Amino acid sequence: MRGTNALLPGGGFDVDRLLAPGQALIAYFARAQLAGPKPERVALAQAWGRVLADSIVADSDYPAAARSSMDGFAVDSARTPGTFRIAGDVRMGSVWPRAVEPGAALRIPTGGSLPDGCDAVVPIEDALVDGESVRVDRAVPAGDCVQPRAADMRAGEPLLAAGTFVGAAELGVLATLGMVDVPTYRQPVFAVLSSGDELVEASASPVLGQIRDSNRWAIAGALQSMGARVLHLPIVPDEPAAAAAMLRDALDQADGVILTGGSSVGARDLTPRIVNSLGEPGVIVHGLRVKPGKPTVLAAIDGKPVIGLPGNPTSALAILTAVAAPIVAALVGGLKRPLTIAGVLAEAYEKRAGWTWLVPVAVDERPETPEIRPLALHSGSVSLLARADGFLTLGEAVSSLPAGAPVRATRFFVGGS
């Protein structure tokens, strides 16, 4: 079994000791002892995007009484076919106050409560109205065009499991149940920092040799889509004392830290050394058998995760989505699965066996079967994030794929994903 320390004494990675992403996460969770999600009740209006801390069950039957599924006439099915006297109208939001007399029918709208004495509804297009009477020319079975009591939800029925993300549909269920005080997990705060003397803020005008910090904003968007909150912090300089102070401050303010850049093995790549100086257990994994993203750092300080991502923008977002998402989920309370796209490979592709590759792709959805085309990943390419529709995860057993091979691309966590 490869160890988690894959560094060679003279610098660089011992490739034979690098962990695959799945192995790295097992090693990480065995030692990290993360604080975990914290329950918090919030108003219904604030529940969107959060994760349920408790399972939700129906408090009663829905609907509470049988109701019509069509606009038409409520009738006693045993008297069909036949002619009925129209005795009145069922109004939405109220019930007919008494049993319907034999031989009578009531006008009823879709969703109207079925009155006593009636067990079926004749759609208006199947009824022949003549003044104050309506004729039904066919035998109507009991229950026709009727939604029975509890057809939607039954009292005590489990509806939403703990760990479910609250979206539009879940909000609708919670509102139907009258849950205006929702048991959720508090949204954890992740401090996001970028490191490197070459970086300047997005609002700055870079000079030659400088670039605007784009990683922080891409990572922040992905974290918010995963259900976390984001604390933006200043750029970390390539100076050990200042970097250590900024990371310590980030840990004081947030539930976790994500740092991009500075995690490789060059002389000025400081992240692993600084993290190890801040507390226990420190760096748990440094180096993954994955491309791109080999220098990824997975660490924890006193129950708080510290994740060091590559400096390449596309690599950083791919590693966060494909590898680090379960670590974020451990604090959020649920793992949000990114959207995927099924299609066929537009061209043959080869890779190194024994490694996991995360390949950025563009998707052409115009054919009946979408075509997924690999894109070249260049160091520092920011525009690739906008041009790529996602990435392929090609596992260690894969060395080549022919054109036309079925594949499934994973979308980046962005926007309202």
Bin the helical content: 10-25%
- The whole-number mean of residue pLDDT values reads 90
End-to-end separation = 36 Å
* Biggest sheet layout: 6 strands, mixed
Describe the strand arrangement of the main beta sheet, using strand numbers: 7-4-6-5-9-8
Number of strands: 28
Rg over alpha carbons: 30 Å
Bulk shape = elongated
Strand content: 25-35%
Which structural class do you get from the secondary structure elements? alpha/beta
Low-pLDDT windows of residues: 263-268
Please count the helical segments: 7
Describe the structure.
- With 417 residues, the chain is α/β, with parallel strands linked by helices.
- Helix content is 18%, strand content 28%.
- It has seven helices and 28 strands.
- The model is unreliable at 263-268 (pLDDT under 50).
Topology:
Blueprint: H1 21-32, E1 39-43, E2 56-57, E3 67-68, E4 72-75, E5 82-89, E6 104-108, E7 120-123, E8 128-130, E9 133-136, E10 146-147, E11 158-160, H2 168-176, E12 181-185, E13 189-194, E14 199-200, E15 211-212, H3 215-225, E16 229-232, H4 240-253, E17 256-260, H5 271-276, E18 281-286, E19 290-291, E20 297-301, E21 304-309, H6 313-332, E22 340-345, E23 349-350, E24 356-364, E25 371-374, H7 383-387, E26 390-394, E27 400-401, E28 406-410
Parallel strand pairs: 5-6, 13-16, 13-17, 14-15, 17-21, 19-24, 22-25
Antiparallel strand pairs: 1-12, 2-11, 3-10, 4-6, 4-7, 5-9, 8-9, 18-20, 20-21, 22-28, 23-27, 24-25, 24-26
Helix pairs in contact: 1-6, 3-6
